[in-house]
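G., the chain you wanted modeled:
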Amino acid sequence: MSDTIFSKIIRGEIPCHRVYQDEHVLAFLDINPLCEGHTLVVPKEPARTMGELSDDAAAGLGGALPRVCRAVVKATGADSYNILQNNGAAAGQEVEHVHFHVIPRQVGKTGLSIHWDPLPMGEEALADMARKIARLC
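Predicted structure as tokens:
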């Protein structure tokens, strides 16, 4: 894995506006935020995608995310929030280190646009895909 900006932030080589840290996770404000309070939650373990993370690092993320979300919502007064996480270039990942965006949202304010374009699938195709995925879990 390449030496990413997040690896450098974790090592303290690049400063950040830290909001939370524990054994597995560092959370800090995004320097190019979509809105006030836009926070990044990053595992300290280097991995490009969620599928490459160890179970311990993933569990650490799972424990930290709700805490960070509660803090962001309370600090910003947001009535809603998005948790955004991309894996790979085709999914929009720009930094090749697992990271979650916690993006506070308020009715009538912009900053993030989401368009959902569902793929029509029949019952047989859904059942087949479910079997394929289940075998690999």
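The radius of gyration is 17 Å.

Shout if anything looks off.
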